[in-house]
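REQUEST ID: PR-0412
SUBMITTED BY: lab tech R.K.
PRIORITY: routine
TASK: structure prediction, single protein chain
INPUT:
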Amino acid sequence: MFQKIKQVALKHKKRIIISLAAFIFLVSITAGPVFVSALMEVNGQRTAEIIAKNTAIEQAIINNDYATWRNLETDNNIKAKVNVNNFPQYVQAYRLLQAGKIEEANLIKEQLNLRNRIASNFGTTSQLDSAIRSRDYNLWRSIVGSQDLTVTAANFDSFAKSYELIEAGKIQRANTYFKFLGFRANPYLSSR
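STATUS: complete
OUTPUT:
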């Protein structure tokens, strides 16, 4: 019996291989989209969770609710610097940023020691503003220095556009540009 099966298999070897390949192909075509769809769904759920959490954090800031903010915030650096006593200042800085009042917000952030490395290296604000508005990468680089090379001559126009969006109070749109540039967060703002 085994001999007959072997003979049939050898006789139809090509057909068996083609059939097996076709079967594997059909399974991969069928399972591939299901797998990709499942990955996209997980990613979409994670994105929705992040958006919901960020919205809750922003709402806690807007409502001046320190306890809720403290429970939701995951940035330990900010949590170490912002406490129940200076939280109203943090809220004020956030509101100023939303209104596009960058310099006023930065003054409060300096008092709270929240200015990040990039922002603190900027030097003279008026020179920076001029360099960014005129899209002069070389001048901007000479003021900022070479510590952070995320912004390059090639992507400086996008960086300048995000700066203008912040000044116009369009923080969310500016963050989109900053993420495109590779920043984890907006270099002009704290974690929000």
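NOTES: Residues 117-123 have pLDDT under 50 and may be disordered.
REVIEWED BY: pending
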